[in-house]
């Protein structure tokens, strides 16, 4: 029977994945709601308008509030994103700023 030899390069010793940055996580949520799971979220421009460029409607805003609220609560159990806050977001950047505010 062969002995298993582990080296420091073995997957067992691999560094854990870094948690996704809040801005990238926010952009990923925005893209997923828009039905785009192929675009790299880090490339999404913050000046893009949710309604005009990403075709967000009322239902997408409802989903956005739910998903952003879940995300901030996963990082800070006392945080909460309200529907009014999300409805005030008009661009990708304003969503990123909203999440940043709740994580600070």
Task: Report on this structure.
The protein has a single domain (21-36, 46-103), classed as ACP-like (Non-ribosomal Peptide Synthetase Peptidyl Carrier Protein, Chain A, Orthogonal Bundle). It is mainly α. 22% of the residues are buried. Helix 1 runs antiparallel to helix 2 (58-75) and helix 1 (22-33) crosses helix 4 (92-103). It is globular and about 30 Å long. The model has no long low-confidence stretch (mean pLDDT 88). It has four helices and no strands.
Q: Tell me the major beta sheet.
A: none
Percentage of residues in DSSP E strands: under 5%
Class based on secondary structure composition and strand pairing: mainly alpha
Kindly report how far apart the N and C termini lie: 55 Å
- The string of secondary-structure elements, in order, is HHHH
Secondary structure tally: strands: 0
Query: How many helical elements?
Result: 4
The proportion of residues forming helix, as a percent range, comes to: 40-55%
Name the average pLDDT: 88
Q: How many domains make up the coordinates?
A: 1
Which segments are poorly predicted (pLDDT under 50) over 5 or more consecutive residues? none
The CATH architecture: Orthogonal Bundle
- Quickly name the level 1 CATH class: Mainly Alpha
The radius of gyration over CA amounts to 18 Å
What is the CATH superfamily? Answer: ACP-like
CATH topology: Non-ribosomal Peptide Synthetase Peptidyl Carrier Protein, Chain A
> Given the C-alpha coordinates, what overall shape results?
globular
